[in-house]
Design a protein that fits this description.
422 residues, alpha/beta, FAD/NAD(P)-binding domain, single chain, 19 strands, ferredoxin--NADP(+) reductase, Rossmann fold, EC 1.18.1.2, globular, six-stranded mixed beta sheet, binds NADP nicotinamide-adenine-dinucleotide phosphate, Ferredox_Rdtase, six-stranded parallel beta sheet, flavoprotein, 2 domains, ferredoxin-NADP+ reductase activity
């Protein structure tokens, strides 16, 4: 029975669902040996370093990932970086198919003056900072201001605004990075604006996330009822289901009784940012609004307006994505997930996306290569295997237990390697 070797680069949701689709496609006349390569010593991608820590339910998908990782014919090669420790062209020679599943890690630029100022950052830097991503622990997040502005009307903007606006004691039972909880506890921010450039009928939020907002225990969430009334009119008599659900959820927030909390999170619609101003440090944002120019003073601006893929040598990119046709890049190279289709959809979207690409890969497979594997390329490198990762995982979970947290994340690469046994 022929066994085809498939390398998956990137241990996030897209990578795991690609592995799962391969496992599901095995038959009496075809099996797959799957090697997943991940540059960090920890797998799970955005489930570890992207999902908001106050939404732990979303992270339970990691149980599925662990099942895939232990289902057989699967090996993890953590702490191995493509382009540094191993070259793409070498992988392509060793494997029958190579699948890029590296996501989109760069924040899109607003393209307005002031993005270079201290106090302006992208969600692409802020989110991994509070999630203990080893490469982002040094991000400078100035929280010594009373007002923050989040630009964008998607779920990432909402995550970011919520993390800034909630009472940080609510983060104690979460796996937020310890240093970030400490910083949030010292934060002076009491007012967070979440600014959408269009009306509420166009917002990219999803309704379950909106419906969660009034449950914040120490924060007033403010949406102007007249904004939503206008959006309902603009949406017309037969709005799409998602738009209607969103507007219903936002109307409920607008009508939700306000309390005396000093912490507020306020939605502003039809606010198009045109300039970020300040002397070396963010001091205000200028917006174009339907009634003219409006200036809001603030000390922190975070844009959450989408992501682009980090370019890699040997791969062509277009509009922030890997150039591909239905997942095929060239020769035996394929792409799945956000690197393929851009940053859209929820974690589960990657399942059907990957299944389609795996079908295409299988249809292109002929005779298996007999050319070794990644072990021939990396020599004595410190590889975090599934066994090493399970030790790290258990140690993090164990240190969280007495604190009532799901885990205490280790953010230092060397410490992670040490925990893994190196
Ligand atoms: P997104 O949903 O595409 O939202 C991006 C937002 O940025 C849109 O509101 C867009 O407005 C706005 N925008 C783009 N360019 C702009 C500019 N130049 N100036 C001002 N605003 C601008 O992206 P995301 O929030 O990064 O989320 C990515 C994906 O992850 C989404 O599918 C999201 O649902 C998912 N996600 C899900 C969860 C969850 O389920 N809990 C959490 C986080 C993320 P326009 O519409 O006007 O372009």
């Amino acid at each position: 029975m022929p066994t085809f070797k498939v390398a998956i680069v990137g241990a996030g949701p897209a990578g795991y669902f690609a592995a799962q689709a391969l496992q599901n496609a095995q038959s009496d006349d075809k099996t797959f040996a799957i090697d997943m390569i991940e540059r960090l010593p920890t797998p799970w991608g955005l489930v570890r370093s992207g999902v908001a820590p106050d939404h732990p339910k979303i992270k339970t998908v990691s149980k599925v990932f662990e099942k895939i990782a232990t289902a057989g014919n699967f090996r993890l090669f953590g702490n191995v970086e493509l382009g540094t420790d191993v070259q793409l062209s070498d992988l392509q020679k060793k494997y029958d198919a190579v699948i890029i599943a590296t996501g989109t890690s760069l924040g899109r630029k607003l393209g307005i003056p002031g993005e270079e100022l201290k106090g302006y950052l992208s969600a692409a830097d802020f989110v991994p900072w509070y999630n203990a991503h080893p490469d982002y622990t040094d991000v400078d997040v100035p929280l010594d201001t009373d007002t923050a502005i989040v630009i964008g009307a998607g779920n990432v903007a909402m995550d970011v605004a919520r993390m800034l606006a909630l009472d940080p004691t609510e983060l104690d039972p979460t796996d937020t990075a310890n240093y970030a909880i400490a910083a949030f506890k010292k934060s002076g921010i009491r007012k967070v604006y979440i600014c959408a450039r269009r009306g509420a009928e166009h917002a990219a939020f999803t309704s379950p996330e909106l419906r969660d907002l009034p449950k914040l225990e120490h924060t007033n969430v403010i949406i102007s009822k007249s904004d939503i009334d206008a959006a309902i009119t603009a949406a017309g008599d037969a709005p799409e289901k998602d738009v209607k659900n969103n507007l219903d959820a936002m109307l409920a927030i607008a009508e939700h009784e306000k309390t005396s909390h000093v912490r507020t999170m306020e939605f502003l619609f039809h606010h198009v940012p045109t300039e970020i101003k300040g002397a070396g440090q963010v001091q205000e944002v200028v917006f174009k609004t339907p009634t003219g120019e409006k200036v809001i003073k603030c000390g922190l601006v975070i844009s959450a307006i989408g992501y682009e893929a980090q370019p890699m040598t040997g791969i062509a990119y277009e509009k922030g994505k890997v150039l591909n046709t239905d997942g095929r890049v060239k020769d035996n190279l394929y792409v799945v997930g956000w690197a393929k289709r851009g940053p859209s959809g929820v974690i589960g979207t990657n399942k059907s996306d990957a299944a389609g690409v795996i079908e295409l890969i299988i249809s292109n497979l002929t005779t298996p290569k007999n050319s070794g594997d990644i072990n021939d390329l990396i020599g004595a490198h410190k590889v975090i295997t599934q066994t090493h990762w399970e030790v790290i995982n258990a140690a993090e979970v164990a240190s969280g237990e007495p604190l009532g947290k799901p885990r205490v994340k280790v953010a230092d690469k060397e410490e992670l390697l040490r925990l893994g046994g190196f």
